[in-house]
Amino acid sequence: MLAAYSLLVTASQVVWLTFAPITTQAASALGVSEGSVGILSGINPLLYALLALPLGRWTDRRFNATLCAGALLTVAGAVVRCVWPMSFAGIMVGQLLNAAGQPMILNATTKLAVRYFPPAQRTLAVSVGSAAQFAGILMASTAGNALFQTGGLQTVFAVYAGVAVTAAACLLAALRVRPTAPDGPVAKGSLRWLRGDRVTWQLAGLLFIGMGVFNALATWLDPILNRLGYGQAASTLITLITVSGMIGAAVLPPVAAARGRRRGVLICATAVTTLVFLTLALTHDLVLITVALVLEGFVLLAGLPIALEWSEIHAGPDRAGAAAGFLLCAGNLGGAVLVLLLEFLIDEPRLAFGAMALIAVPGLLLVARLPATAAPQRSDTQRHALAGDLQ
């Protein structure tokens, strides 16, 4: 089940980021501007912000149906692009379908761990599911240009549609596996419980910063390095950062959970982010940039599964989908906002790196105020007793 789900997560990311490494080539092939091609990728974070919370509640209520819908929308989006490979409007429809399905898939990360794994293995399950997001980013960034050179957009769309269909088929087959932990009562009504939930808001704030910094770095590292005279190194460096992040996301969360050091790892990740970008604002040696950003990727991307798992422990299994949706909504908003803000600074690398260091500072304040350990907001018995009264 975890393998099938992770493959689906990867496929969803690949379909989303199809145009990231081939923006210029795709714009030329379609006869549109590079900005128009950029919109094809930019619609995902915006739709995620709109759909994450309601679809998170749907994940809690109808897990299998939600995940199936997400898988089918991903396939539909990939196939539509194959049908109209040279139509910008047709490609936009495909991107919109995938964007609508993505929250249904990613919101399920913690809920899947609760349903299919015993408590001792849930941290690892969340880590693997989260790392699959970065695997999709890596696949899209490394394979896109080679596929385009082989056969243009038609080949790119066909290969990625094959990945999506395979992933969806595996997921639908895996859903026949009976959960080891049946669903408990689901809190009915609105999401009013989020209003005063300080821990969930703090975790959301951390993801707003963390995912925002990563998205801004991935988006603007190439032009920043061009200004420094290292333009040829950007693609390789982004790959190294992503691979390092995948390793960190898979390794650090289980260690942190086993030793009760979740907050410690988050503090470390936030502090490293501040120090790394402050250092890069002061010195621009390529070797130092490479080492610093690989270290940054290792600790920064590990924060995603740690925050998601913490939200499930805190909010409880009956609210896991909604809590994950809220956190990922905040992360996607952070990505959109920080990418826009950094656009005005990329001509001055010192200012761009310095701004990312400054952005991380509020994260230190947020993580310092988190509880020392992750704990349920209330006991299962209390939560189930109140479930029917939540409005």
Question: Would you mind describing this structure in some detail?
Answer:
With 391 residues, this protein is mostly helical. It has helices at 2-16, 23-30, 34-61, 63-83, 88-106, 109-116, 119-174, 198-228, 234-258, 262-282, 286-300, 303-315, 320-342, 349-368, 380-387.
Strand content: under 5%
Quaternary organization: single chain
Sheet of most strands: none
User: Given the helix and strand composition, which structural class is it?
Assistant: mainly alpha
The rough form would be described as globular
Report the strand count.
0
Notable characteristics:
391 residues; mainly alpha; 80% helix; globular; disordered C terminus
Indicate the topology.
Elements (H helix, E strand, L loop, with lengths): L1 H15 L6 H8 L3 H28 L1 H21 L4 H19 L2 H8 L2 H56 L23 H31 L5 H25 L3 H21 L3 H15 L2 H13 L4 H23 L6 H20 L11 H8 L4
Helix pairs in contact: 1-4, 1-5, 1-7, 2-3, 3-4, 3-5, 3-13, 4-5, 4-7, 6-7, 7-9, 7-12, 8-12, 8-13, 8-14, 9-10, 9-11, 9-12, 10-11, 10-12, 10-14, 12-13
